[in-house]
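ok so I'm stuck.
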Amino acid sequence: MPSYVLSCCSTVDLPQAMLDERDIKYVYFNYELDGVQLKDDFGRTNSPAQLYAKMVAGADAKTSQVSVGDYVQHFTPYLEQGLDIVHVTLSTGISGTYNSAIAASDELEALYPGRRVYIVDSLAASAGYGLLVDKLADLRDEGMGAAELVAWAEEHKRELNHWFFSSDLSFFIRGGRISKAAGLVGGVLKICPVMDVDHDGALAVREKIRTKARAAKRVVDIMRRRAAGATDYTGKVYISQSECLDDAHMVGDAIEAAFPHMDGHVLYTNVGATIGVHTGPGTVALFYWGEPR
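replied:
not stuck anymore, here's the structure
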């Protein structure tokens, strides 16, 4: 048994049952709908369909990071059991939650001398963040110690590729990710921006492509070039989607045909509430291991 726990935030956008089965601990992010405070609890409070329907109907949606107090409450039981903690956070390019986790770590290490609370900035989001944590669980299960695991994560986390597109730009516009003028032109021309998460873990628009079918083809073409081993890629592939499963399958089916040696089948997950509040419906996000960003 390892002498530490592996932990993350609910923004990994993996099925809760998968995290439980893999013995990956988690703390909930927070969001707000029309002034009501809610937990990003893997869709139990609001299913993805319910959340996006409310947003499209005009609900005021906001997110808030995990607080220092929430982290202290989450970490304390494991420290009391004499365990160290490796906690991986949502990217600092998207959220300030890493700073809250560091503050909680400093506070608790002073209260529990001899125990360590390691905090890793994933520089990743959604199921890309999840793919990193899943790999760390593999390494933990193979016997890697906490300090080694943290060093591996720091060395390899930028090899996690995120490529995504959206057929509905309205929530990207609301969140200031895309300008209103660009969004209006994009809507008229049926432009689907192809985006990624950059070296610093922030969202970046890379290309503007007309129609989602072409955008879907483009992210697969990029994977052919960037994936570790190119079309001989042997790793896992995760795809997150926000109420557009057919679009996600359009990408996933093409990937399974193009990468015959990949590890199993594409895992499809829902974009969770925290990320979904900013993307809205219509977003497909592709994640795999490849060239460093």
